[in-house]
# Entry
Amino acid sequence: MKKIILSVMMMVMVTELYAGGLDNKALFIKQNSPKGYELIKKFAVKKWGDDHSMVLFEINTQSDDADLLIDSFFRTKDIKSFANAIKEWSYNDYSINLGIFISWLKGISDYGTIYTMTVDWSMVYYEYDRQVKASKEIL
# Structure
């Protein structure tokens, strides 16, 4: 029972944290990649329905993780792990997402295009980070 109460309290605290609106990363995506923002928002609404505070939380979380992923990729440049993470966590056609990634990687498309991939950004970041760390351990 204590674990349930503690879990509920944590959710309330996290929800309160995001009650102020979109965070900086989400605002950046909304301004620089409106289509990407709409896809993240659609993902959040599908996941949380009409629970607006959780939709906001999910938008902020997905945006933050997308930013962390891109930052990590620029540091590590592990193309194969990135592509595999996209494949694992695409919720629409993987080949379209791969095409977006390749165009972005080659500089064919602008920076904001990367956010138009239909992926669970949190899970792509998690998988990418996990694979990069593991590859460092075995080398």
User: Anything to note?
Assistant: Helices lie at 2-17, 24-32, 34-48, 52-76, 79-89, 94-105, 121-138. The two ends are 45 Å apart (CA to CA). The chain has a mean pLDDT of 90.
